[in-house]
Structures are given as structure tokens and as C-alpha cells.
Design brief:
The complex is a heterotrimer of chains A (283), B (375) and C (189).
Chain A: H1 4-9, H2 25-40, E1 52-56, H3 64-67, E2 71-74, H4 80-90, E3 95-101, H5 102-108, H6 110-119, E4 123-129, H7 164-170, E5 175-180, H8 184-196, E6 201-206, H9 210-216, H10 222-232, E7 233-235, H11 236-241, E8 251-258, H12 264-282
Helix pairs in contact in A: 2-8, 5-6
Chain B: H1 3-14, E1 16-21, H2 28-40, E2 44-47, H3 51-63, E3 67-72, H4 74-90, E4 94-102, E5 108-112, H5 117-122, E6 131-133, H6 138-155, E7 158-164, H7 165-168, E8 171-172, E9 221-223, H8 237-252, H9 255-258, E10 261-264, E11 271-274, H10 280-292, E12 297-302, E13 304-306, H11 310-317, E14 322-327, H12 333-341, E15 347-351, H13 360-374
Parallel strand pairs in B: 1-2, 1-3, 3-4, 4-7, 6-7, 11-12, 11-14, 14-15
Antiparallel strand pairs in B: 4-5, 6-13, 10-12
Helix pairs in contact in B: 1-2, 1-6, 3-4, 10-13, 11-12
Chain C: E1 5-12, H1 17-30, E2 34-41, E3 49-57, E4 71-74, H2 77-83, E5 92-96, E6 109-113, H3 115-123, H4 129-141, H5 146-156, H6 162-174, H7 178-182
Helix pairs in contact in C: 1-4, 1-5, 3-4, 3-6, 4-6
Classes of the chains: A alpha/beta (283), B alpha/beta (375), C alpha/beta (189).
Amino acid sequence: MPSELIYNYMRIDHLPHIWCAGCGNGVLTHDVVRAIDSLCNDPDRPIPREKVVIVSGIGCSSRAAGYLDFNSMHTTHGRAIAFASGIKIANPELTVVVITGDGDCAAIGGNHLIHACRRNIDLTVVVFNNEIYGMTGGQYSPTTPRGDKGTTAVYGVVDRPFDIAALAAGAGASFTARGDVYHVKETTELIRQGIRHKGFSLIDCRSVCPTYYGRKNKKGDAVQMLKWQKENGLPMKQYRALPPEQRADKYALGILSRNEYPEYTEEYQKIIEMAMAEKGKEK
Amino acid sequence: MQGNEACVEGAIAAGMRFFAGYPITPSTEIAEACSVRLPQVGGHFIQMEDELASMAAVIGASAAGAKAMTATSGPGFSLKQENIGYACIAELPCVIVDVQRCGPSTGLATAPAQGDYQQARWGTHGDHPVIALSPSSVSETYTLIIRAFNLAEKYRTPVIFLTDEIVAHMREGIEIPDPESLEICDRRVAGNDGAYKFAYRVPEGQIVPGWKPFGEGERYNITGLFHDYSGFPTNSNAMAQEEGSRLLDKINNNLADIIQVDEYKMEGAEFAVVCFGGTARAAAFAVDAARELGIRAGMWRPVTVWPFPEKELEEKLSGLKGIIMVEHNYGQMLREVSRVAAGRVKVEFIGCIDGTIIEPVRILDKLREVHENAK
Amino acid sequence: MKNRYEMRFSGSGGQGVILASVIFAEAAIISGINAVQSQSYGPEARGGMCKAETIISRDSIDFSKPICPGFLLALTQKALDKFLPETRENAVIVADASLNIPENAGNKKLVLLPILKTAGEDIGKAFTANIVAVGAINSLLGLFDRETLTEAVKRHVPPGSEALNEKALQAGYELVDRQMAESCRVYIV
């Protein structure tokens, strides 16, 4: 029996989705939908569903937008955040959520990512980070760990991977967090908080790609990859308590950074009010 | 007023309330003027991190319902191309100003040229429609940018405003038309009864689909993939054929509305100087000078440069003994003119790519030559 | 040929020759006369060769560039050497007094005026050289009345700098004596 979430929030006539069996993207899409659902039904400050816009770029992750029964925009490769910025600035009332992948947002779209962070524009970026280019067949991405393999790195990746959440925090995002596929409740809550946060928020979610990344790197099937997440994804406090030599493959889940820096569209609204008042005086 | 300022004032009169751009000579004054003027009218200006982002933001703003514009020059126009194609297939209206400069690459950044004419038509990949307009004076910049917005909104398509350094950096006195007298066209937003399923279906009697902007109650999908009526990606070849044809047809079936040509002393002309944009200034001057010498010359200038006014030129051919194509490139509109003339009227060419401006005397000399030869 | 009076202003980037050219176009527009103004310059904001042009006519103006200028302002030697030969017979040439008149200058009315020195020493602001030049040129050519010119200047200088620019304009006027001006008068017909 499919969950009510599917009937309420997905374009069911376009299902089943195109993702492979065992892909983490379905679970992460669920997390996004559940987070939005809880905000739409928040008795204190409900977000009207009609004001929610989902924007995505190109890649496996970005197919999520089309399945979601909101205003949705599936844009060009790497540019989702730039499209989303235009949407948000033109109508600041909208709640804009960007679903993107590691290649989409940290390679071809890296410039848009860091500048949106710097602007602190009120977008929520959910990264389905599967550490590989899945749609094109398994090429290494900016988050593939050093030494791992892809179809364009058969001898192993030479360059260092990006930590997208840390990159965003460094570029000035006012809310950054890390989630994954296995820790559903925690990740959903991080996405919910990210959307609620006034300012640029990014939730870097470890996905799993058993078809390409898993197979190329002998990580086992989807179940084994999820088990690995279960063992290695630790709550922030627990992770920080570990001595560095024991961290190895472990990664921290939770909020990495958070501050109340002024939000872009609110600040620009002040400029509009000032400019209109001055222009009014001239007349 | 400067050409670039007239572009901004006209755009605001047309209802432009969103501008995203990136600094590039010789279009920068447009961004500067927008940053001052848009907040005064409740609109938004943003300087994005690059040319690709500014094109993307403009399309996003259009999806949110704003009349949106960006401005750039050669190198930036190249960078924007992929997203211009997105606006074509997603049918999101927007205006892209390209102040042409001398290229390729960084070229002569502050010098005039018209080398982006064919790029305006074929710059983005795949088959797609395009409308491009080119002004030849500061006052025409004002009125024509309004038309650019009107056509963009009416046909739900990006419109390229192909100006050049000559007109963009020229200052002339202009008379600002009474806002009441302006014809302003807004996009069709006819509802789909709240159902996302038919956002892209074109009802009987309409040219384009219509839907409400994001946030106004309809939930639909927009994509750069070929899509079905609901806007959802499709791999259907039949659907791709239908969509692709419809995009081209909405322009090709409405040429009479879209095409605009300016004629100067073409009545009884035996020799036509064909040109567009800022080049018209020298051409008109040369035509006057030629007329004083008894040469029956006229100027024929497409204002709508894409689609090329084929039928309109065809109608002129029977009276002509010669055509002189004058443009600041190595023969880009020449290809279109030669194709239409198809050997029936000889087409001479005057071009220039060194960053200087073609002087009237070059055109006059050529007119005298063709006039002599035609005797 | 239509009646057109073609003016060229030249110097190096940063001297404000474009603004000088804009001010004459503005003054023409205020007077109900057609004007087209344009410029060309290199990528340098400071120091590169820079020229600006204003065409004034009671007829409509097609070609926006001078064909054979009747007036030239040159504030650098390079500009004077380059553009002097392009001016027409009997053209009025205003050059800064620090420049050398090229040999074979031809039949031109050459007027050397201490524009840069006046701006730098008398006004005390080198950047007002363009406004000093505007005053001197108008005094010489008698194109526009003083009020019109002042208004044109006011429309194009930053708010708060009106008094300084008025002083520069006046200093420019004073550089030209009546005798000099008599032989240079221009009438826009």
C-alpha cells in the first residue's frame, strides 16, 4: 500500500520513476516531501502548498522535481540555483526548494552555489550526493573520494573531493547540514529546518548509487551500502567526540553551521522602499 | 539620451520589472541604469555571478510572472545561448539585449560590429524559433524594445534585441511617447482549471499555451526536455515532432505580425542599399547623396532581422537593378539577401570587421559604380 | 549634402573630452536643434587615446560620425597630430597651449589656449579642464547662449559640484578675447 504522501504530493500518473532499484534518490525525495508536508500542515505557520516551488538541474537527482505535485521547474545542467534565484527575487513570497546533485551543484554549477551562499538568498538546496555522475553512466564527480573509481577514472580519482556542506558554510550559507539515505527521520528534520530557515540553507544528503558507484568500487548492493551508512553516519556530537584517528570513514550528521545573517530579498525590499520614496519626493 | 538608457526606459515602459546581468562593454550602461531605475518602480535588479546565471535568473523570474530582461555583448551572448534554448522550449518570455561589438572572442571590446547576426538565429543548439529586432537610432531603441517585450509575451518566446555599439553609445534627443499611447501586450495566462495536466496544450484559436505564474494556484511542470501537454518529459517521437513544429509554426504562421521593415526613398528606386541597425545611418546619408547625383537609390532596412523579411524583399526585386548589402561583418545578412535575390538581382557587398564604422562615401562610391555599370 | 556642423573632441582618457562633447549635444537639444553624440575609446579608463564627436544640425542627422570636422579640440599632442589633418579647410582647432603645432598644418584657424594650466592652477582641479574647454570653445564659436550652456553643464555634472564647474566655465570664457572670437564664429543654419 503506497503511502498517502505519494497520493497527495506526487504526480502518480508519471510513476514509476526512472531511478534504478536500490537508488537512494527515492528515499531522499520522500524526505523532502515529508518535510514540506509537515510545513504545509504546521498549525502555527503553515506554508501554502501553492507557494512551494521545486527547482532542479540536470542529472538523476533532478528528475525528482517532475514527480512532485508542486510548481516545478526542471532547468539546465548546473543552473538550478540561478533559475531559483530569479524565481525567488521576482516573487519573494514563494518557498523555493532546489533539488540538485553533486555534479550539478558542485562542478558545473559550483559558481552559482557559492554566490547564492554569499548572497544568503532564501533558497533551500537539497543535494542528492551520490558521489558519481549516474545519468551519464558512472563518471567520477567532484565528491568521489580520492582513489575511488569511475568510468573516467579507471585507475582511481586523483583529485580531492569537495565536502559540499563545508564548502557552502565557507561561502557564507547561513544554514548547512548533512543528512543521508539511511537516517530518514533525522534527514527529514534537517530539510524541514532548512526550509524554515530564513536565508540560504543547504542540506548535503549522502545518496547511494549501487548501479555505478557501488559496482565500480565494490561497495556491494544497495542493502550493503545502506548498512555502511548506518554504521558510519554519526550524530554530530558523537562524531566530534571521536579521536581523529577513529574518524576514518565516519561522517557527521546534523547541522554544521547556522547564523542569522540578513536575507537577500528582505534587504533588497528595503532598497525598493527607499528608491520608491525618493522617486515619489521628486514628483 | 544614450541608446543604452533609451533601452532601459523603453523596457520599463513595456512593463519590465526584473533585470539580471553581468558587466560587459558596451552593454554595461543598461545594467547600471536598471540598478537605479528598477527599484524606483518596485522592480528588481540583480548583478549575477556570470552570464549563464543572469540568463537563468531571467527565465526563473519569467516563470514567476515578471517581464524580464538581460543585456550583454558578444562573449556574454555566446555564454547565454544554452539557456536561451531553454526559454524557447519552455516557452518562457524574456528579452535578451545583445549590444554587438567587434569579435570573435574578446576582439575589440569597445568597437562596433554586427557579427552576431547569424548567431542570434542559430546560436543555441537544436531547431528552434527566434525573433530578433534591430534598432538604428536612440528613439527607435525606445519604441522597439517595447515591441520586443510585446512579441516575447505574445508568442511566449525569447526575443533578441540585436543592437550595436553605434546606436548603444550614441546620444540623441528623443521624444518619450505618452505612456497612455503605448500598446502593451501581456502574456496569456488563461487558467487550466487548476489542473497541471494541460499547461502546454494550445486551445483552439490561440497561438500559444497559457498558464498562471508560479505561486498563483496551478501546479505544473516546466522542463527543457521535450514534454507532453502537462509539461512532463516525454520520449515520444510523435510528441517531439508536434512540439517542435508548434514552436516553429507559432512564429512562421504569424510573420505578418512579427515582420517590420523600414524603407527610405524606395519609391521608384533602382538600387537598394540593404542594411540593419546602426549601419542605416551611413546608408541613409549615402542614399541622399546619390539622389543628388541623379542615382535612383533607396534604403531597405529590416527592423525585424529574424525571421528575415523574405517576402518583403521578394516584392521589391522586380524594380531593382542592383542591391548593395552593407553590414559590419563579412557578409552575414548577405547570405539571406542573396538567397532571396537568387541571381535575379545582382547583390554587391560592403563589409567591415576592423572596428571602424563604414563611411557613407564607401556606399556612395559603390552606388556610382553599380549605376555606371547598369547603363 | 545636409547642413551639419561636426565637432570632434580629443585627448586622453580621463580628461573628460566625452563629457565636453555630451554637453554641446545637450545644449543643442535644449535649443531645439538636432544633435548626435558618440565616442570611441580604447579599453583604458585613463591614459588611452579618446575621441568624442558631436554633430549639430537643424536637419535630421543620419550618419552619426563626422565626415570632415569643422571643429577640433585637442588636449594631447598625439590627438592633435592625429586628428588635425582630418579637419576641413578653415576648421577651428582649439589645442592646449602646451602643445606644438604640427608642420604643414594647412589652412586652419589654430587657437592655442592654456586650458590644462587654467584648470590645474587657477581652478585648482585638473579634472575641470573639460569644462574650462567647453567655456572657451563656446566663447570662441558663439554656438549657444551662456544660460543654455550652463544648464547643459548642470545636467551632466555631479550634484554639489555646480559652483566649481560654473567657475571653470567662466574661466574658459575668459581665455578667449573678442578679437579671437570674431574670426571663429559659427552659425548653425
